[in-house]
Design a protein that fits this description.
The complex is a heterodimer.
Chain A: E1 18-27, E2 30-40, E3 45-49, H1 56-64, E4 71-76, E5 79-80, E6 91-94, H2 106-116, H3 121-134, H4 150-162, E7 168-172, H5 180-197, E8 200-205, H6 208-214, E9 217-222, E10 225-230, H7 232-237, H8 242-247, E11 252-259, E12 262-265, E13 268-273, E14 279-285, E15 291-294, E16 300-307, E17 311-317, E18 323-329, H9 330-333, E19 341-345, E20 351-355
Parallel strand pairs in A: 3-8, 3-9, 6-7, 7-8, 13-20
Antiparallel strand pairs in A: 1-2, 1-4, 4-5, 9-10, 11-12, 11-14, 12-13, 14-20, 15-19, 16-17, 16-19, 17-18
Helix pairs in contact in A: 2-3, 2-4, 3-4
Chain B: H1 2-32, E1 33-34, E2 38-39, H2 42-49, H3 53-85, H4 90-102, H5 105-122, H6 128-135, H7 142-165, H8 169-178, H9 183-191, H10 196-212, H11 215-219, H12 225-235, H13 237-270
Antiparallel strand pairs in B: 1-2
Classes of the chains: A alpha+beta, B mainly alpha.
Chain lengths: ~350, ~270
């Protein structure tokens, strides 16, 4: 759509480290954060991912200074900022809902922070124009928020957040109010901008695809705690816990028997990952790891197929009633209709096991 | 069917117009048509020269300005804080602010009069005695401002509440704060400009209230505009009606000015 060619090299000099240390916060009886420890490296794009109510937004707001922890500390570059008020935090923030000031046009919105810092009019207008150029809206400076689309408003909010050259950029689900296409282009632009500026960025989202596609590392949270913080590929390929495995991507559970570090599943014996006592377990498998082939003697039945473009996602019911999702290349799926008898197998690789969930 | 409906609408409109316009027209005719002299505007020209007109009108306007300033300084920070900090207290504040509608002015002024009588006797040896004297100063009775602030609470509360509902106060304040604005700056630079319509509404309702208030001022023995109209009416019937018509026109002019300002606001926000 638009290309951001302008650069602001002066922002590069001071990428900050952010540390959360044992953050704890309760709202009445609900525990929003239950001892969160997390370190964000300088210049890193870190996504905080989790279901709603997992505390990811609370953590972000604590870094912004809008919430205060019951215990624990927030450190920026090793300096404790837990008790620094929000307007002295040096953190730019983009909000979920449209947060532009309705009474100001785009230029004045971007220049708002500079006005608070008493920068001279000519100087701040020049800086604002430069930032609008950076987000690809150089020609929309005189427009008011109500004259701009949702995507344009979020770009201006991004420019406003960057105006004061903050040490940290905070993004609180900035794309969730936008439609699918705008969301895609804007997230790529945010990523490119972040890399150009090299600014430490925290990005809160509940959309795992969004998190995996833009972030350097993804921190998965659950019930106020960190489940796993890893690079997207590792998170997807080697999830540390069953929760991460099922939250990130699609995962099927197949019953198996664990003995001495190997698991008996679908008539195969495979090495097992995961700290679970021997006995009845569930084997966690991704759809692309499950192989399905037509087999007249097979005890499994194809229940449904969904065409996803390059692949067909098949739902297979095993003899014991368990449903498993499998991705087949589209050409292999022709001729496989609902009710076909099929055989199911797994590749000879270690599999993730977790405790059996009773249904 | 549709035609009959339109007909009914015109009939209702006509009846309502008669109800409002006949007394108004009668008032105007009464002031300009003097028996035996034909049409004359003497009643209106005499207003300016009549003793007490200018002082009482100025007093009323001064009281109005002071009341608006006090009630807005009191209510705007309170309601913003309420929205951000303690949304659960809102029903309580709403009830408290609506109380003046329930208590009749006559009971209200009786209470004030009692306190004003009791206070100086009881406090005669303390500096507070002076306070009681000062707030009853005839040239600018502060006690009336205090009373009017209470009486304006229900209107101001409702006007501001409607305005605050229309904007996302929390996000605006937080956006301003993350841009380096302190609390007062966030309030003045980010919230107040977006409450312009609500502030104008609140100011106008308060102005109308103060200009027309009679009971409290009269019973406490002060002489703002409404009391002056009543006093003049006793001796010069024609002129008191002329003054009423004039004050009605002034009030209308203010209302139209406000509607103009508010109207611009509405069209601006509806485009989004």
């Amino acid at each position: 759509m638009t290309h951001m060619t302008a650069t602001l090299p002066e922002t590069l000099e001071k990428a900050a480290t952010v540390e959360f240390r044992g953050l704890r916060r309760e709202f009445g009886t609900t525990v929003a954060l239950d001892g969160l420890d997390l370190t964000v490296r300088p210049g890193e794009f870190l996504a905080l991912l989790g279901p709603s109510g997992c505390g990811k937004t609370t953590a972000l707001r604590m870094l912004a200074g809008f919430e205060h922890p019951d215990s624990g500390a927030v450190l920026v570059d090793g300096e404790d900022v837990t008790h620094v008020p929000a307007h002295r935090r040096d953190a730019g923030m983009v909000f979920q809902s449209y947060s532009l000031f309705p009474h100001l046009n785009a230029v004045d919105n971007v220049a708002f922070g500079l006005r608070m810092r008493k920068v001279r009019t000519a100087q701040r207008r020049a800086r604002a124009a430069e930032l609008l150029e950076l987000v690809g809206l150089g020609d929309k400076g005189e427009r008011y928020p109500h004259q701009l689309s949702g995507g344009q408003q979020q770009r201006i909010a991004l420019a406003r957040a960057l105006a004061l050259r903050p040490r940290v950029l905070l993004l609180d689900e900035p794309l969730s109010a936008l439609d699918a296409k705008v969301r895609l282009t804007l997230r790529e632009e945010i990523r490119r901008l972040q890399q150009e500026l090299g600014i430490t960025t925290l990005f809160v989202t509940h959309d795992q695809e969004e998190a995996l596609s833009v972030a350097d590392r993804v921190a998965v949270m659950r019930a106020g705690r960190l489940e796993q913080c890893a690079e997207p590929a590792e998170l997807y390929g080697r999830p540390a816990t069953a929760f991460v495995a099922e939250f990130v991507g699609t995962m099927s559970r197949i019953p198996g028997e664990l003995t001495d570090g190997t698991v008996q599943v679908l008539g195969q014996r495979l090495p097992a990952d995961g700290e679970v006592p021997d006995g009845a377990v569930d084997v966690l498998v991704r759809p692309e790891a499950v192989r399905v082939h037509p087999d007249e003697q097979g005890s499994a039945r194809l229940v449904a197929t969904a065409f996803l473009g390059a692949v067909v996602r098949a739902t297979v019911r095993l003899a014991d009633g368990t449903e498993v999702k499998a991705d087949l290349p589209a050409h292999e799926a022709t001729g496989l209709g609902a009710g076909t008898a099929v055989g199911v197998s797994l590749p000879e690789r270690p599999v993730l096991v977790s405790e059996r969930i009773q249904k | 069917m549709a035609r009959r409906l339109t007909l009914w609408r015109w009939i209702v409109l006509g009846l309502a117009a008669l109800y409002f316009l006949v007394p108004l027209g009668a008032s105007v005719i009464f002031t300009v048509d003097v028996p035996g002299q034909g049409v004359t505007f003497d009643a209106y020209t005499k207003i300016l020269s009549t003793d007490g007109f200018l002082t009482s009108l100025l007093l009323s306007l001064e009281l109005a300005v002071a009341t608006i300033a006090v009630v807005l300084l009191l209510m705007v920070p309170a309601m913003v804080a309420l929205r951000l900090g303690a949304p659960r207290l809102r029903p309580v504040v709403e009830v408290v602010c609506s109380l003046p509608l329930v208590v009749p002015p006559i009971a209200f002024v009786a209470g004030i009069a009692t306190v004003l009588k009791w206070g100086p006797e009881y406090l005669s040896r303390t500096p507070l005695f002076e306070t009681f004297v000062v707030i009853q100063d005839d040239s600018f009775p502060v006690v009336l401002v205090l009373a009017y602030v209470v009486m304006a609470l229900p209107f101001v509360y409702r006007a501001l509440d409607a305005g605050l509902r229309a904007i996302d106060v929390r996000t605006l304040v937080e956006a301003a704060r993350s841009c380096g604005a302190s609390w007062p700056q966030a309030l003045v630079r980010a919230v107040l400009p977006n409450l312009r319509g609500a502030l104008l509404n609140a100011a106008f309702l308060t102005l109308a209230l103060v200009l027309g208030e009679f009971t409290v001022a009269s019973l406490l023995g002060f002489r703002p505009f409404a009391v002056w109209i009543y006093d003049v009416g006793g001796s010069q019937a024609q002129m008191s009606v002329a003054v009423s018509v004039l004050s009605l026109l002034v009030t209308w002019a203010l209302l139209l000015a406000l509607a103009g300002a508010g109207g611009r606001n509405r069209t601006a926000s509806s485009r989004g």
